[in-house]
Design goal:
With 527 residues, the chain is mostly helical. 65% of the residues lie in helices and 1% in strands. The chain is built from 21 helices and two strands. A hairpin with a 4-residue loop joins strand 1 and strand 2. Helix 8 packs antiparallel against helix 10. 46% of the residues are buried.
Length: 527
């Protein structure tokens, strides 16, 4: 990958909001390269852990039941442990394998021309007006496939927008807003996050002093109606911001990527149409075989205990990324041979190699990002922040509506430092769920407030494991994209979702609309 060009001129400062975003972009882009920034932050964590390791905290860590302690990462034993785990920390970094495996299949489909031809066909029949909402909705739908949206929907958002004559960074922003900003929304299908959070909520609820809470059971779909309705909110907010705020602001940002690697909107040729037909049939046949294999109750794709397909332990959920690899590899190969863009297996391997050659910069960033996130978790700094924040909110004794909004804000703040949704909820929920049960608020309602905050700031924190990958996608079109560029691009979505989604939840409560299956707003349940 070539070195980034000088930073592009920011959007014209036509109003105060644009001037603020421009300032954020300039300041953010003056930061070191993301890889070096993660290395520097690693040093900050080491020093902070050393400085705070001698402090005594009385806050109880719900994971251990003991007072939380900051671990000194500069102690000899900690340093040798860190050094011994560097390789394992890197290769086990969750996004790394997800990205590389998926990109192998996507690389073949892109190299043979299948993706480009397919998108040109879709764009020829899709009204330009509806590109944005459809893209955001697809991003939300991708939650069923866990993290697949990051490596599939977001780069395709750029391709779709650029091929339609729109700014590719606006496509990335819209897709990122759907995939990550709307992470707690569900497009009719539940995601693997639902049972995971419900299980943690149940554990937290049983910590209540109420004897009846010892046997409380939380339904995995306890927020289903709210998260499904939230899809429409996220789409509408994202649609407005993309078309009316983000894209106009990007007019001054020049697309300076390699012209040879950018998609084109030429009319489809006969060989391309023929290739699309056969590739489409191959994809449908593959999908049909998968559906037939998962339908039986005793299917090996189902979770061993619950026989559910969307349970976190279901082999289907664990095989999502390999399935993406297969579902793009097969039609990519078929298209290549039928359309004449691939003549032998060597072209298929070349397509995979080409995809991997563009991932070098991401791999470097992932290495330093993985080490930083591991050290931050080991030091217990994020856990301390979450527990202190929850206890402070408890001590303030705000009115109920303010407290629920406070949970949203607390979660969104902690989310800037602790990426894992389950880790945050294990820490915050252990305090907030029993506390609000004492005030008559159900665990279902508290969990819904948490989910709003957990999504809204995903898109502006460089500590999101996929954040470096999004920068790589942006640099394909605007080479000077930096951390500041992406944060300024996504900040309007983050703030708008935080406010609108919180009001949406409070509106659900005020109108007494059902949150989900077996869910209530009050504890004990009324009626």
């Amino acid at each position: 990958m070539t070195a980034p060009a000088p930073a592009p001129a920011p959007a014209p400062a036509t109003n105060v909001f644009n001037r603020i975003l421009n300032g954020i972009e300039k300041a953010g882009n003056k930061l070191p390269d993301p890889a070096i920034l993660f290395a520097l932050l690693l040093g900050v964590v080491w020093l902070t852990s050393w400085a705070m390791s001698g402090m005594v905290f009385t806050e109880i860590d719900p994971r251990s039941g003991q007072a939380i302690q900051i671990k000194n990462l500069l102690a000899p034993a900690a340093l040798t442990e860190f050094a011994g785990r560097i390789v394992n920390t890197f290769v086990s970094f969750p996004p790394l394998g997800v990205v590389l495996v998926a990109m192998l299949g996507l690389g073949v489909a892109e190299y043979t021309g299948f993706i480009n031809a397919g998108l040109r066909k879709i764009l020829s029949v899709t009204p330009r007006l509806f590109l944005t909402p459809v893209l955001i909705a697809v991003g939300i739908l991708s939650h069923v496939a866990v993290d697949a949206g990051y490596v599939l929907v977001i780069p395709l958002g750029a391709v779709i927008f650029y091929a339609a004559g729109r700014h590719p960074l606006a496509g990335i922003a819209a897709a990122f807003a759907g995939v990550s900003g709307g992470f707690s929304a569900t497009f009719f299908l539940p995601s693997s996050l639902d049972p995971l959070l419900a299980g943690l909520t149940q554990v937290a609820a049983r910590l209540s002093s109420d004897p009846a809470a010892a046997t409380i059971v939380i339904n995995p779909l306890n927020n289903y109606y709210f998260t499904t309705a939230s899809t429409f909110l996220v789409v509408l907010v994202g649609w407005f911001l993309t078309d009316k705020v983000i894209e106009p602001r990007l007019k001054a940002t020049v697309v300076d990527g390699d012209p040879a690697g950018l998609p084109k909107m030429d009319p489809l040729q006969p060989n391309e149409l023929r290739g699309l037909r056969w590739a489409g049939l191959a994809m449908l046949a593959s999908l049909a075989l998968l559906v037939l294999s998962i339908l039986p109750e005793n299917s090996a794709w189902r979770a061993p205990d619950t026989r559910e397909l969307t349970h976190a332990s279901a082999p289907l959920m664990q095989a999502i990324v390999p399935l993406i690899f297969i579902f793009f590899l097969i039609p990519g190969v078929v298209y290549g041979y039928v359309a004449g863009t691939a003549s032998s297996h060597r072209d298929i391997v070349k397509g995979m190699s080409h995809a991997m050659s563009g991932m070098g910069y991401y791999i470097v960033m992932a290495f330093f990002c993985a080490q930083f996130i591991y050290a931050f978790g080991q030091a217990n700094l994020g856990a301390l922040l979450a527990i202190k924040g929850a206890l402070w909110l408890k001590e303030m004794a705000f009115p109920l509506g303010v407290t629920l909004a406070g949970i949203v804000v607390l979660t969104s703040t902690v989310n800037l430092f602790v990426g894992s949704a389950s880790a945050k909820w294990a820490l915050i929920g252990a305090v907030m769920v029993p506390m609000l049960m004492e005030l008559g608020v159900s665990p279902d309602f508290t969990q819904a407030a948490y989910r709003v905050g957990d999504s809204s700031t995903n898109i502006i924190t460089p500590l999101l494991p996929y954040f470096p990958l999004i920068i790589v996608f942006c640099r394909k079109y605007v080479q000077a994209t930096g951390i500041g560029t992406l944060i300024a691009l996504m900040l309007p979505y983050s703030l708008s979702l935080l406010v609108c989604w919180t009001l949406f939840l409070l509106g659900f409560w005020a109108l007494d609309l059902p949150l989900g299956v077996g869910a209530t707003y009050t504890y004990p349940p009324q009626g």
